[in-house]
Amino acid sequence: MMATLNRPSNPNFDAPLLVTTPPLVRAVGLTKRYGRIEAVVDVTVEAYPGEVLGIVGESGSGKSTVLRLLNLEEMPDSGDYHLNIPGLEGQNLLELDRFARREVQIFNIGVVYQNPHLGLRMRFTSSGNVAERLLLTGERTFATLRQAARDSLAISEFPLNRMDDPPRVLSGGMQQRVQLAKALALKPALLLLDEPTTGLDVSVQALVLDTLKHLQRERRMTMILVSHDLGVIRTLADRVMVMRHGRVVEQGLTDQILEDPQDAYTQQLVHAKL
Ligand SMILES: Nc1ncnc2c1ncn2[C@@H]1O[C@H](COP(=O)(O)OP(=O)(O)OP(=O)(O)O)[C@@H](O)[C@H]1O
Ligand SMILES: [Mg+2]
């Protein structure tokens, strides 16, 4: 793993930091079955601080299941999961009780779903959606909550004159920005994105990708990004993991995987999409 990370052709590559820093995310041997369906089989995910890890693969290959496991929304059948965050070092998160897991999820992990209905209350105000997350800290002062919601919406480059509109009246791109603001409200160490721009039209998609890129560059957020769109992966991801039938078939630096895929399935995927 570290050997491939050392390949110096990626301009975003920050070798000394990556080599000397332990991974922020280290989930080893995750397996998840639904009845007889093997959704995820023996998948290991590592993401380093400030890195964007892309996950690609055809429909049904297990990408969203991996994100749900990393978001502690679901428990795997086996595997372990560590986040190298102060207070959690050495702790297998899968051994925590569900209240402690919920706490880890709320304070350390942000998530943006493809479907905004999964992430938002569509009839609340957008600012209220973000503030709801902030309420979890125990903050109860209206002005403070509103200011914090506004700050988070601003970071997500949401048009602030619309902050009191409910998501249901907003465009798809704006809804994704509200999800992003909500995900970032508690300044998580890890941001999980499941097809965040799928279904948006191309120009809106480009703007949302720009916002994510700024976030990554300026805040060095660690992100795990699921997308079937190799253009999105190429724009954002430093490294890519290719999944098929619940398993990882290939991984490496993005340019390496997209320019010179070794696995037959990855070659097929890359040639089909380019
Ligand atoms: N809650 C569930 N109950 C039963 N089967 C499930 C469940 N969630 C996922 N699966 C199955 O697990 C497999 C992996 O699904 P998953 O949603 O992770 O794939 P994906 O790679 O995200 O696909 P897509 O690109 O279509 O979003 C599929 O066969 C799916 O039908
Ligand atoms: Mg999915």
Key structural traits:
single chain; 274 residues; alpha/beta; Rossmann fold; three-stranded antiparallel sheet; 12 helices; globular; disordered N terminus; binds adenosine-5'-triphosphate
Class by SSE composition: alpha/beta
Please tell me the overall pLDDT: 92
Output the strand order for the largest sheet.
5-6-7-3-8-9
Parts with pLDDT < 50 across at least 5 consecutive residues: 1-11
Q: Number of DSSP strands? A: 9
Which percent bin holds the helix content?
Answer: 40-55%
Query: Whole-Å distance between the termini?
Result: 26 Å
Overall shape: globular
Bound molecules: adenosine-5'-triphosphate, magnesium ion
* CATH superfamily membership: P-loop containing nucleotide triphosphate hydrolases
- β-strand amount: 15-25%
Main beta sheet: 6 strands, mixed
CATH class categorisation: Alpha Beta
Please provide the ordered H/E string of secondary-structure elements: HHEEEHEHEHHHHEHEHEEHH
